[in-house]
Amino acid sequence: MHRTGAVGEDFAAAYLQRKHCRIEARNYHSRYGEIDVIASNEIHLIFLEVKTRSANAMVSPLAAVTPQKQRRIFKTAQTYLMHFPTQLQPRFDVMGITVGKDGLTVLQYQYLKNAFTADGIS
């Protein structure tokens, strides 16, 4: 993982913890792909995709979560749930983070709850 990506994922995990979520896994891999952060609260099991970009990037962080990427995240989440069953409701969130030139300083972020649903994935 690139340093910028690690900075973004660390920021995202800390953000969720401040929101009283428990981090269940980070960088969970399956044959379909990877989920950056998996967290839980009293109601949801949150599958979080984190996209970190520098301030001068041509594409916004959130635009990088394409329908194809959403399908891979969904299939990876299904694999996780087969191995770790839960009564919690799955939720797919996306966090876009912009960092400064140093690659370490978070300049801004956007957090989208329910960024996509299983119904919206074809």
Automatic annotation (TrEMBL):
Source organism: Caproicibacterium lactatifermentans
PANTHER family with a match to the protein in the record: UPF0102 PROTEIN YRAN
Protein name: UPF0102 protein GJQ69_05470
Lineage: Bacteria, Bacillati, Bacillota, Clostridia, Eubacteriales
Pfam assignment, any one: UPF0102
Organism domain of life: Bacteria
One MF term in the entry's GO annotations: nucleic acid binding
Family per record: Belongs to the UPF0102 family.
